């Protein structure tokens, strides 16, 4: 496949380079697209890398290094740029974990997905991507990502992204202390980290309506003890006692999850054992919330940082969605 003759960006060979990543960051800010050949190359490379990762990736923070945990970014590319401006860009010494829902709603989902994938290809062992409930076909059809892929690139681009989403890990364990996943805990107290380790996510491409994968991507905390029905109609809610038992049984300090907007960008609930991190400030241009991210250095303390939304070009959220009046999920 040929690169268009008017393409004036950095060329990509068979390996990702820092120069290419730095260049696409600027191109995307200017509203430019990538040649299809590069889009396919990036998605296929990352699909292969992620497919071979475990369902729960296990990582540690070595001396002098750090990892930044981000929650939902939902296609808000200019706010992602703000995170990198404040906190630095991903590198071999500065790992990032994006905890799902990088696509849908915001109208720069292609740019976010391609940039995070380019970083994943450049730094496979210091860039981590957990799957969210929006890295799924049903959500992408309703909330804009499928339409955006077709508008900016083509149908095949969406199909390749969909395959790559099915390959993404479902959780990351940081320093044996923090269990990071998009939604939350399970319907059954007997589920342990070992069950997550053993889960063969390649047996199902989509999370469906029940089972471990669905629960990991969809559940939410509640203040009442025990478990309750989900307000979303998918998944369930888990109380502080559920979180406490899970952390004790698995030797964890806390679980870190995303999936719900929080006005301060983050919230510590369940006696600080259930932490929500959300990185899309002024969600959908309308919620007025701050975004936040968490830095973890080799002392394994959580350092929260809040940030505000920045200006973006005048394209509304859900601009590419087939049914823009859908509710909040
Ligand atoms: Mn979500």
Summarize the structure.
The chain has a domain at 30-178 and 261-307: Metallo-dependent phosphatases (Purple Acid Phosphatase, chain A, domain 2, 4-Layer Sandwich), CATH 3.60.21.
What does this protein structure show overall?
There is one protein chain. This protein has 329 residues and is an alpha/beta fold. It has a domain at 30-178 and 261-307: Purple Acid Phosphatase, chain A, domain 2. 32% of the residues lie in helices and 17% in strands. The chain is built from ten helices and 14 strands. It has helices at residues 18-29, 36-51, 77-87, 109-122, 137-143, 145-152, 155-167, 193-198, 212-218, 240-250; strands spanning 56-59, 66-70, 94-98, 127-129, 171-174, 178-181, 220-221, 227-229, 236-238, 254-257, 266-269, 274-277, 291-296, 302-307. It has a six-stranded mixed β-sheet with strand order 1-5-6-10-12-11. It has a five-stranded mixed β-sheet with strand order 4-3-2-13-14, with helices on one face. The chain has a three-stranded mixed β-sheet with strand order 7-9-8. α2 (36-51) packs across α4 (109-122) and α2 (36-51) packs parallel to α7. This is Serine/threonine-protein phosphatase. It comes from Aureobasidium pullulans EXF-150.
